[in-house]
Structures are given as structure tokens and as C-alpha cells.
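Hi everyone, sorry if this is the wrong subforum. Our group has a chain we'd like a structural model of before ordering constructs, and none of us has done structure prediction before. Sequence below.
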Amino acid sequence: MIRLEDRQVMVSHIEQAHTAGARLRPACELAGINVRTLQRWKVGDGLVRGDRRPETIHETPAHALSDAERAQILEVANAPRFSAVPPARIVPMLADDGVYLASESSFHRILRAAGQSGHRGRAKAPQASRPPTTHVAAAPNAVWCWDMTFLPTVVAGTWFYLYLILDLYSRKVVGWEVHDSDGAEHAAHLVRRTALSEGIHTATDKPVLHGDNGATLKATTVLAMLHWLGIKPSYSRPRVSDDNAYAEALFRTAKYRPEFPAQGFDSLDAARAWAAGFVHWYNVEHRHSGIRYVSPAQRHAGEDQAILAARHDVYISAREANPRRWSGSTRNWMPVGAVTLNPERDSIINAALALQDKPKLVV
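Answer:
Right subforum, don't worry. Here is the predicted structure as C-alpha cells:
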């Protein structure tokens, strides 16, 4: 908008130039307006009262959320169940309960108006990460990612060691252990126990196990165990710290949970108890954004298709009940297909999916 004083000065300069012989259209374009705007200002009261758009009264749309609905959304978002959960997960979780209050964007607007638009819980702004090594997982137990992270203790300089194995396709934690020392024998035991629990010894196709270049994960003891189990090892590229992004993201999720003891663990039993609780939450209760907000356990068991279909029906019913609140189609609740580790070469991905008789990715 142009202030009234600026309008008057601008029109005065244009008229002086036009009187001196300049053409009106180029003079207006040089001033940043068109001839039609100049005519509208001179015919009406645009040079007397200025821009009247700020005085316009906008009526509230009939399909807008009521004050009671907005208060209900704010109450639900601050309930103990959702106090540390972002709107992107609140809405699908409510849909699984057969409840639809509003869209994610409406939740964000209401929380922002209430001064609660920051990251919920202990999370910080996400950081960009480079892609990991190329692998394709079109089913559970096709590609595993594993790593080890340090858990702080109340004694400075003393650590516990958390080992985790993550299924790339379902994001389920299929194996974990916590120890008071970092040793290859712990990693080898974890791989063996996880393979037995997932039935890898009877499977025709063995998984690929991707990890970093740490000495523990590349030790002879671990390689011998992998060879005996028929599991193919895979390692990050040299000098690439974030080439195992899925495992690193899992550790970040673990350490930014509200119940994570920032001051450190008192004992090994306390660390193991926390790890057991976290793994149960992550596998069973956590709605993962990378798999359409179903839990990893549901996707690992093949239950995600039925859940997403029911969630789609809830959205359809919500749109039919209030069609004016929907500007287009409902949210995409189609199950996620194959998952790739470092999708930098589409030809490799398509070739891998063709071998597994899966549809090719659309590029």
C-alpha cells in the first residue's frame, strides 16, 4: 500500500512531467504504477482519504472453526497424551481413535495464536543430512541399519553403550542391548540374538546389515558371526560421518525424548530399563512420519495397509460432514513402498525393485 502523502507527491510529479511533454504511460511506469491506477486515484477520493483497504471489515467465513472448536483443539494439544507430540502426529493418532477435529495446519495456526508454535518436547530444528550408501528395502528384514551410541552416567567420563539394530523398511528396532563396555563380543551377540528372533536362519533371502566404519562393528568376531548367519555386511563411505542416517536419526529421537535423563544414568540397570521403555514406545506407540504415521511394529507386521485404509475413511467422512473446510482432496494415506538408503542413482533402485518383482519408482 502507498501512503496518502506519497500518492499526492507521486501524482504531482507525474502531472508535471506530462505537462512538460512526457507521455502519461511511461511516466506512470517510471513511478511504479499504471495509468488505470492514476485514473482511479483522481476520479475517486484516493488523493483525499488514501487507501481504504485497512478499513475493510472481513466477515468470518461460515465454515470457520468456532471458538469452542478452537478451545477444544488447544485443550487436546495440551493434554498429557499429546503435550510432547507435534500436530503432524496428533491428527493421525486422533483419526485412529475415530476422531477428527481439524487439519494439521489448523492445529499449527491455533497453537501459534496461543504462543505455542515452537518445537514440542526437547527437540530442536532439524538439520540437513547427506544421503547414505545405496540399498533398497521392499519388505521387512531386507536391510538392517545398526550403530552404537554413548549414554551418559552421573560419573563424568564414564559411559554406557547402547547398541541398536533398525529395520530400514519398517523402522522397527529389531534388536538392542546396553553394556558398560564397548566390545565386539557384544555386537556379535546382538546380531545373533536378533537373527534368531526375526527367523533369519530359515529365511531364503538374508538381510544386509549397514553400519559405520567403527572398529567394533568391523571386528573379526563380528564378521565371523555375520558370515555364519549369512548376513551381508555393508559400511559407510570413508570420511562421511552421516552415511548411516536412519540409525543416527533413531539415536537423536532417543536422546531427545522427555524422559531421557539429561544428567546421566545412575546404574546399568537404570540405563537398560530406560532403553526397554524407549524401544517399546518407538516400536508400538510412536507414529513414524516416514511411514505415514503408523507404528513401526504395525508396518513390520503388515498391518499398516488396513490402518491407513480405515484412516482414509475417517478423512472422507470428515470432508463429507464439512465440505467447505476442504479445498481439495483428502490427505494421502497410501502405504509407503520401498525404502532406499542413499537414493542417489535411480537406475540402481529400479533394477533392485525389478529383481524383487516390485513396481518401479516414478522418477
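For your construct planning: Residues 164 and 176 are 4 Å apart (CA to CA). Strands lie at 135-137, 143-152, 159-167, 173-179, 208-211, 232-235, 339-341.
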